[in-house]
Amino acid sequence: GAVVSQHPSRVICKSGTSVKIECRSLDFQATTMFWYRQFPKQSLMLMATSNEGSKATYEQGVEKDKFLINHASLTLSTLTVTSAHPEDSSFYICSANLGQGKLFFGSGTQLSVL
Amino acid sequence: KQEVTQIPAALSVPEGENLVLNCSFTDSAIYNLQWFRQDPGKGLTSLLLIQSSQREQTSGRLNASLDKSSGRSTLYIAASQPGDSATYLCAVRPTGQGAQKLVFGQGTRLTINP
């Protein structure tokens, strides 16, 4: 079946550094990918919609300059958390749209900012 | 604004029991509803997808129902096993939104005791 690969699974960084998270669709092309954020014991909150070849669409309250999204190919979207701070520590998950209501999710990235 | 609520937040039952997880949503204008499973620190696995025109879907020991007019869905798990322990999330795709946006509930943390 379709697989979405997300890397890295866990990252620990110092405050002020930037972190890049990759989301790949391994056996299908995804013109649209989604980035979610999940705090402990809370639900997933959509951050942005990543569109191949065009600018990402951000949800209200999500800082575009803070969370940079690049969808340069039909199989890869990246999320860069710029100048990360402890409050950015969270679980980030991507998903890819296979069409017909089918969404496949990556395994997530646990970000810890010290 | 669409809101999704899941009750209970946590559930612990002995192995072998049948159980029901509940999901309610505030706006009945949806394309579909989906149940996911999330293991600790992992991504999401889609369990069942119910289109708005459908009443239920079944997969193995799982059965999901949808009553769109009342804004409710249930996930029935038969003959529960310790391997069923996970967090179960329901999500709706509202109509009128961009491609594939999902609104998630906060999940039910299920523990099956051997």
Q: What is the strand and helix layout of this fold?
A:
The complex is a heterodimer of chains A (about 110) and B (about 110).
Chain A (H helix, E strand, L loop, with lengths): L3 E4 L2 E4 L5 E7 L6 E7 L5 E8 L5 E2 L8 E7 L2 E6 L8 E10 L2 E4 L3 E5 L1
Parallel strand pairs in A: 2-11
Antiparallel strand pairs in A: 1-3, 3-8, 4-5, 4-9, 5-6, 7-8, 9-10, 9-11
Chain B lengths: L3 E4 L2 E5 L4 E7 L4 E9 L5 E8 L4 E4 L2 E6 L4 E6 L8 E9 L8 E2 L3 E6 L1
Parallel strand pairs in B: 2-11
Antiparallel strand pairs in B: 1-3, 3-8, 4-5, 4-9, 6-7, 7-8, 9-10, 9-11
Can you put this structure into words, describing what you see?
The complex is a heterodimer of chains A (114) and B (114). Chain A is built from no helices and eleven strands. In chain A, strands 2, 4, 5, 6, 9, 10 and 11 form a seven-stranded mixed β-sheet that branches. Chain A has a four-stranded antiparallel β-sheet with strand order 1-3-8-7, with no helix packed on it. Chain A has 114 residues and is an all-beta fold. The mean pLDDT of chain A is 90. In chain A, β4 and β5 (44-51) form a beta hairpin. Chain A is globular, with a radius of gyration of 13 Å. Chain B has 114 residues and is mostly beta strands. Chain B is 0% helix and 58% strand. Chain B has strands at residues 4-7, 10-14, 19-25, 30-38, 44-51, 56-59, 62-67, 72-77, 86-94, 103-104, 108-113. In chain B, strands 2, 4, 5, 9, 10 and 11 form a six-stranded mixed β-sheet that branches. Chain B has a five-stranded antiparallel β-sheet with strand order 1-3-8-7-6, with no helix packed on it. The relative contact order of chain B is 0.34. The mean pLDDT of chain B is 93. The chains are: A mainly beta (114), B mainly beta (114). At the A-B interface, β5, β9 and β10 of A face β4, β5 and β9 of B.
